Structures are given as structure tokens and as C-alpha cells.
Amino acid sequence: MKKIEIYDTTLRDGAQSEGINFSTSDKLKIVKLLDELGIDYIEAGWPGANPKDIEVFNELKNIRLKHSKITAFGCTRKPQTKPQDDKILQMLLSANTDVITIFGKTWDFHVEHALCTTLDENILMIFESIQYLVSKGKRVFFDAEHFFDGFKHNSDYALKSIKTAYDAGAERIVLCDTNGGCMNYEISDITKSVIDFIPEIKLGIHTHNDSDMAVANSIAGADAGAIQIQGCINGYGERCGNANLCSIIPNLQLKKGYDVLGEKISNLTFTSNSIAEISNVSVPSNAPYVGMSAFAHKAGIHASGVRKNSKTYEHISPDEVGNMRKILISDQAGTASLKEKIRHLRIIKNIQDSDLPKIIDRIKKLEWKGFAFEGAEASFELLIIDILDKMPDFFKISGFRVIGDTFIGEKKHNIITEASVKVKIDEHNIHTVAEGEGPVNALDTALRKALVEFYPEILKYKLCDFKVRILDSKDGTAAVTRVNIETTDGINKWDTVGVSEDIIEASYMAITDSIMYGLILHTPQVIDEINEN
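Given the sequence above, the corresponding C-alpha cells read:
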């Protein structure tokens, strides 16, 4: 079984994504996540490029990793400069890493028009830089920048460039599709040509996704003989991104049979989402392998199929990459979808087959009005409890009112929002008033104020996400609005939904469901009563 090395450049190339700005702490957290995943090489940054990367390399000197090796990234010496006098090479050495990756020009067009030097001088720059770093006891990887474009325009010079790097002592020659414009057959053919030219060479592949081919191109490179694949978690990177390691790794290991991460591949989804959280860039829900919808089934026939045998509509078992199957409930749901969904609910465990048709009928009517239960499983479960006529009598809201007053001063205006709520708990009629930062916060505060004396556990419930979606924009400010709320008690999380032409009412519905669900979840006796036949 051929071993494929994984070289991660999320902290350097990935950090060039628009909207990503890693702190030193962020980078160190990501290094630990990648090490736990079993990544072979982690490119931590460019020493000397900025104070942050200097700090990162200083911190990494004191961290012992289980598997990964840290690499420092830079470039060949400047034209007409001795290696020992080149500031970039000296900063690379100061990073104190065993492995150094430097890039150099292999496309004659770039040498003459970007580097603005002669072709011969560029060859000397490659040779002397690598030779100097090797003489200092460093393992050197050479990123052959723009190699595939250079090969297509002047194969002799491109090959001469990497032969120079090989002769100078570079352990890996990494062929780069820097502009991301190559097709997979070009990657394959050119990679094979390089191996024919230097049979003993150990190649890597570094591709960009400008033509949406980075994953396919990386796999083509591996099949053609490369032993190292470079890329970024979640496909982060400049322009359209780098090759997405979250797709490449499972494709290489699970589909092609290469030795990549072994059993640690089951940590892939966790790593992907953890790094996304640190990056503040969400993983697309439909991302292959690691997206939250990668194994989600909505159509009834699909749910029925995977319930009988997951291979009917899934190309792998989701647990292989640490993901999980989701059965979505919508207006396309059938009894098979509903049965599979119920198996994974937190509260409800027993539902009679005779109850399924009326549940499906209610779901379809509500979804026609704009409700969506795919991302609101707590509201979905409460809906079933209500249909089964088993809703506990924790509290009833008799009414609520929200008002806002605006006070305009010389420099700014202030809006004070006040909400009042009337609640009935057993024989107690409670009327509370609260101010808040906007109507939703005021309403939430007033409701909690009314309930806390009877149910002090609600103090643990925190709203951790609030989303609003306009369902029919042609109606403008009178459009139907859907509000989704995510709540946590510090351990569990649950999602609720409300829909109305009035955003306050939609919010009230979602908030009420949120509190009701939390109270049920934390009352075992009530759960037992709900599940009694």
C-alpha cells in the first residue's frame, strides 16, 4: 500500500483567504488539531514576513507534537545575493524547524517578467539556496512555482529548474499548479514526464482551485507517482482556494486505497468543523464528507433505502469520516423518513404507526406556511408531543406586548424597548415587564422573569444563535418571516423555529418553544409520561 504524505498549508496559504485572519493563539490551536488528525507536515507560516509568524515559531519551539513535523516557508535568495547574506534564508534558519520549504521560479515567463532576472541567475538562486540550507542540517522541500504552466511553455527550462533543486539536495520536489488552471490529464501526463526524466525523484503536488479541479488534480498527481499532497483544510486559500484536504484525504484513503491517515480519518469531520470555528468561516453544509448535509436524506424513498441498507443512497458510511446521518423532515417526508427521524429524537421514543399520517399531514401544512423543521429539531419534537396531546402544562402565555420609545438627542438617538408578558402557571397569574436591547431581547427577558421563580433552571438556558429569514421578499416589510433560535444549557443544544408576518410574533414562538423544550428535557418524570402508551 503506497504511503501518501499530507502537507497542510492552512496556516500560510489558507490564511490568505478573504475574511480569515488567524491570531497566534488560533494558529497554535490549529497546529494541535492537525497533529491529532495525523497530518505529516504543517506549514506554520513565513518567518519574518510579519511579527505574528515570528511569535508562532517561537511558541512552537516549546510544543511537543505527537506526529506532525513543522515546516517554515520562504523563497530562494534574491538575485545577485549570497545565501549567507540573504535575510529571508536567515529568518528561515532562525525558525529552528527541521524542514524548510522554499519556492522558486520554474516558468521562464515569470523569471523574466516577475522576478526580473536572467534564466541562468534563477538557476543559481535555486541551487545555492537549497545547498546552503542543506549545509545547515535542514531537510528542504522545493515548491516549483508555476511548474505546470512553465512545462507547457518551456519544458526544457522547467525540467532544468527542478533537476537543479534535486541535485542541490531537495528531498521533495513539489510541482505547483499555482494559477489553478490545469486539467487533471495535464497534471497526470506532466507528472509522469518528470518521473521519467528523474526516476529517483520524490514528488509532491500543490494545486489551486481556480478551475474547480484542485481535488481531482491532486488525486491525478498521486496516481501518476507523487508521494506528497499539499493543501488546506476546507479548501481555504487565496482566490478560489487551495486543494481541499477534507475531500482529498478520504478520496485517497477510502476510494483509492492509499495509506494516508489510517484510523485517524474518523477525526476528519471534527477537525474540519473545529478549524472552521477558529477561522470564523463555516463549512458549507453540502461539503462532501464533512458537511452537515453530506449524509442528509430528505426524500422519503431515500430515507427508506438507507434505513434498510445505507449503501442504497450513501457512498460510504458517515462514521468513517466522523460524520453522521441526518433524516430531514419536510413536505417531502414519508413514513420511512419519519420513523428514522424518531429513532434519533431526545425525548420521544414511542410512537404508534397509526399516529404517523396525522404527524406528516401537520408537517406538510406547516411547511406550506413557511415552517422548516430541518434546522429546528426541538420544535419538531414539540410538534409531535402536541399532536399526541401530551404537551406538559408548565405554563401558558395569556398575552404579550412590546413597545419602543425613541429619544433623539443632539448627537445620537436611543431606543428603549419594553416588553410585558402575562403568564399563567397552575392557579397563578403573573404579569411581568422588562426592558431589553431590542424587542426580542426584551420579550425573552420578560418571559424568563415570569417563569424563573417556578422554574429556576431556566437561568442556565442561553440563546447562542438567532437567525431571521425573509420568506417572500416581494411583500417587503410585510413579508412572512422565519426566526430560528439556538439555545444551550451549557451541555446540550437545541433549535426552535417560529414563523409569522410579524417578526416579534415569530420570535416569541421560537423563544417559547425554546424554554418549553428545555423544561421537558430536564424533567425526567415528564419524559416518562410522554412516552407512556
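The chain has 18 helices and 16 strands. Try to locate this feature in the C-alpha cell string yourself.
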